UniProtKB/TrEMBL annotation:
One of its GO terms (cellular component) is external side of plasma membrane. It is a single-pass membrane protein. This is MOR1B protein. Coiled coil: none annotated. Keywords: Disulfide bond, Glycoprotein, Membrane, Transmembrane, Transmembrane helix. It is found in: Membrane. Signal peptide: none annotated. It comes from the Eukaryota. Its main location: membrane.
Length: 176
């Protein structure tokens, strides 16, 4: 989320026509087209964050900037050249890094929380904790994970929370 992303279509010479057909997971379909004989581009129902990376007669790459959760979906590039027709298909899934907090609860236990990540983050502790993380599904494909450190009766002065997610990794120590 928030980054720039490019989808590459076949880089062939003598392009006659290029069409990007975009079917987002939510919202309406969109197309970006280029016709070489008229040196003409066409845009139908596409949001402003989708555009040609450069000039389509030189590079038919599609650019999405910034990427948002609404950018998820199927992207098909169809290209006609003197060499033949070419198709490139992508399925874009957007990763949402969770917002992270580490704090001490009312009983003095360290707590690690990864809020609204997609997919769900994984949390573990050093030293090892016997607690099971709690999971809250927000119904929009994001998940919050909450883990409270329990030291199995040992007195721990400091615990380190480790969070793993495909879009990031994180660790923080806390003493309660």
């Amino acid at each position: 989320v928030g980054d720039r992303f490019v989808l590459i279509c076949s880089n062939k010479s003598d392009v006659i026509m290029v069409t990007w057909k975009i079917s987002p997971k939510t919202g309406g379909h969109c197309t970006l087209g280029y016709r070489a004989d008229l040196n003409q581009t066409n845009r139908t129902n596409c949001t402003e964050n989708m555009s040609w990376k450069s000039r389509p007669d030189r590079d038919p790459t599609l650019q999405i900037q910034p990427v948002g959760r609404a950018s998820e979906g199927n992207y098909i590039c169809e290209m006609a050249t003197r060499e033949g027709n070419f198709h490139q298909t992508y399925h874009l899934t957007v990763l949402v890094p969770p917002e992270l907090t580490v704090y001490c609860d009312s009983r003095g236990n360290p707590v690690c929380k990864a809020v609204a990540g997609k997919p769900a983050a994984r949390i573990w502790w050093v030293p090892a904790s016997s607690s099971s993380p709690e999971e809250e599904d927000h119904g929009d494909e994001t998940v919050t994970i909450l883990s409270t450190f329990t030291g199995n009766g040992t007195d721990v002065n400091s615990a380190t929370c480790f969070v793993s997610h495909p879009a990031m990794s994180y660790n923080q120590s806390i003493a309660c």
